[in-house]
Each structure stands twice: as C-alpha cells, then as structure tokens.
Amino acid sequence: MSERWIVPGWPAPPGVRSLLTTRYGGVSQGVYASLNLGDHVGDDAAAVAENRARVVARLPGAPKWLNQVHGVQVLDAAAIDCGQPPPAADAAFARNAGIVCAVMTADCLPALFCDTAGTVVAAVHAGWRGLLAGVLERTVAAMCCPGERLIAYFGPAIGPQAFLVGSEVREAFVAEHHEAATAFRPVGGGDGRGSPKWLADLAGLARQRLARIGVTAVYGGDRCTFGDAERFFSYRRDGATGRMAALIWLD
Q1: pLDDT tens across 112-136, in order?
Q2: In a designed cystine with 204, which of 153, 176, 183, 187 is the match (CB 3.0 to 4.6 A)?
C-alpha cells in the first residue's frame, strides 16, 4: 500500500528525499484505520508500533518525532534522541545525511523545506496558532539560508472551503499584515449570537508569510484533508482520528 503515499512533486535537488503518508497501508482499526502514526490519540499501541515500523522500512532511519504543541520551537534533528520522549517543538531541520525530520498532522499544514543546493532540509507543523506566531519564519531563520535559495512544499491540510474560524482568528492575522484579509471569506449568518464566521485559507496564509521573507518557490497545498475521508485523517471532520506524517531527509 505504500505506493499510495505521496512523493512530493517539487524541484528539490537530487540529494533531498521526502515522503508524506496517507491513511493507507497500516493495521489500525476503526476510526484510526489504517496507517495511524500518532501514539497519543487513543489507538492501540501495538498497532501504532507496527504502522511506524512500516514507515521506517522506507526511510534511512527512525524519524525524529516531536511533541507538537502549536508553538514556534525549531530543533536541530541531529540533537533529538529517539530513545527519549519526543521534545516539545513544531519544527526540525537537518544538515547531515540520513537524519529524518518528521511532523504529524490531521488538518494542520505540514510544510517541508530544502535549499537549492541540497545542504539543509526541514519539516514544520503549522496550525493557525503556530502560523500566526511565526513557526515558518523561525524555521527559515534556523536553516540559515536566504529565502530566495529555499524551496517549500505544502502537504495535505484542511482546505479553504472547510476551515471555519471565528472573527478573532481573522483579526489576529490582519492585525499583523493587512493582506491576510484576502485569505478569509465570510460565510453564513455567524454562530447565532451575532459573531460572524469565516472560511480561512491556511495554505494561502502560509504562502503570504513566506513571500514576505523571500521564499516564493512554494509547491503543493492543493490537497484537502477534510474533504477526502478515504485518503486522509481529519481532526475537524472526525474528532477521534489518526495522524499522518510528513518526512524529509538528505541522502
């Protein structure tokens, strides 16, 4: 089933390898069917371990998992000890071959980065809170590479036709950068108490923020987790659900 995972279509240099898992190819049952990689969502531990083993079989080593907290902490993946509990962070980068950066998502935006010379890679978990707080900008800074020499790929995330947010989310983004208003579309009559609701373009907001720091070579971002229950996990759609992984490493 691993052929049903996603190999990003982006012009990364030959030494950069990347992979995004989907629901296919695992052993988990019920709401976690089938390739749930999250060990914190209530799934059977043995099933998660088997699922992770199937993914590791496609990689040069064990992924450097993170305890994702919707923050802006960016770690050097080489310093993460796979024998210890995952550190609290939402992004990791690597400069050495064989070190697999990894983030898990089920609606939030997974963003992969590499430089055009193939010397550094990074993986980022970007929900709206982390995006607003600057997790993408922090990651680019940690990579120590000019924006014009970076390439980004956005994996499956909740799409602009499904990501419903309140006015406070829109106002927070627009307060930072006025052009963020173009990534929100009003819907319906609000929540019944006079509060308007908005459909937000998470990938669009991410593109805007990257463009401001010189990263304009951005690919992907066109697959919606919410709208494809067969292929993708979605927390917004299902509540109890599994997690997919976005992985990147240097050969």
Answers
A1: 999 999 999 999 999 999 999 999 9
A2: 183
Q: Beta-strand (E) ranges in the chain?
A: 16-20, 74-76, 91-94, 101-105, 109-115, 121-126, 150-154, 164-166, 184-187, 197-200, 218-220, 244-250
> What is the pairing mode between strands 109-115 and 164-166?
unpaired
Q: List the CATH code of the domain at 2-157+215-250.
A: 3.60.140.10
pTM of the model: 0.96
pLDDT tens digits, one per residue of 172-220:
999 999 999 999 999 975 555 556 899 999 999 999 999 999 999 999 9
The Cα 28–Cα 37 span in angstroms is 9
Nearest in space to 4 (alpha carbons), one of 28, 27, 20 = 20
Coil, strand, or helix at residue 184?
strand
